[in-house]
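Moderator note: this is an archived Q&A kept for reference. The question asked for a predicted structure of one protein chain; the sequence and the answer are reproduced below.
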Amino acid sequence: MPDYAQLAEQMREALLAVDRVQAETVLEAVADCPPLDQVEGILVPAMEGIGDGWEDGSVALSQVYMSARISEQLVRRMDVAQEQLRFPQPRMAIAVLEDFHLLGKSIIHSMLHGAGYRVEDFGRMDVETLAARVVEEQIEILLVSTLMLRAALRVPELRRHIESLGRNDVRIIVGGAPFRFDPGLWKQVGADATAAGAAELLPIVKDMTGRPS
């Protein structure tokens, strides 16, 4: 039985060093194991550890970004169909709401993909366009990133637009500076959850998707 805890730590170190070759070497040690085991046992805890480092200031933003990209690439290169790699899960998407900061959204998207989740990247959108896209693509979980308070305060309007188009079951997870500054803001705008970063987001998404432990 592979020592997944040790391998996850080796993966974390390789990702923080931006050493793609070493990261691939870590996975080669469990090449005969099911891809889902490799993702759940090694990549997810490694990325969670990096997310924790981002939150406590011990990991630089550039390290988080590159780690997420390498992790995403490793998942994409696994020689299995996406349906085999991931258990059935709700349709998810991430978008920046009426702001122009895209780096944080890109990092979260890459980290989620590297952890084995399918997440559509909608980029930057206004309320009306995002609501229509959510309904058109039958999104069930929507991750909304904001930088400015004025954008965060438009989340209730976003939900109303989605509901006016006939969808009352979309769960919204919000994140970004306004929600870090005011821990209760996510409830005020009617979101279903909030996360300050990937370390907090991964358990929320895991719970919402019903992903097995």
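Archived answer notes: The chain is about 55% helix and 15% strand.
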